[in-house]
């Protein structure tokens, strides 16, 4: 019975947090629109950044926000495990790809020329 109550309170608090997030983002949009000409640019951007940061912070404390943050941390750890190629390996691989692409292009160009002549021969002789 207590787990049901705690789940209901979490979901209602999540709803409140999402409402606060949406209201803060709406304040960013409306504030930028209303005070676009009157306020100094640096002050306006600072206020908008603070409101946007508060919106992100509010969203981060929801269940979905916590799940997303966990995913982002795991993704960052996985990216750190990647072994990136050296500059020399990258240049060599790029040159190989360019050479193979050029050779395949020339072969296809030659085959196209042959097929055009064969089809032309067949169609003119009929």
Model description:
The protein has helices at 2-34, 41-60, 63-81, 87-125. With 126 residues, it is an all-alpha fold. Helix 1 (2-34) runs antiparallel to helix 2 (41-60). The longest helix is centred in the last third of the chain and has 39 residues, at 87-125. The chain is elongated. The chain starts with a helix and ends with a helix. The relative contact order is 0.06. The model is unreliable at 1-5 (pLDDT under 50).
Q: Features of this protein?
A:
mainly alpha, disordered N terminus, about 130 residues
Task: Describe the secondary structure blueprint for this structure.
Elements: H1 2-34, H2 41-60, H3 63-81, H4 87-125
* Low-confidence parts: 1-5
Total of helices = 4
Rounded radius of gyration (Å):
30 Å
Q: How far apart, in Å, are the first and last alpha carbons?
A: 89 Å
Query: Given the helix and strand composition, which structural class is it?
Result: mainly alpha
Give, in order, the helices and strands.
HHHH
Mean pLDDT: 87
For the secondary structure, the number of strands is: 0
Task: Give the gist of this structure.
The protein is mainly α and 126 residues long.
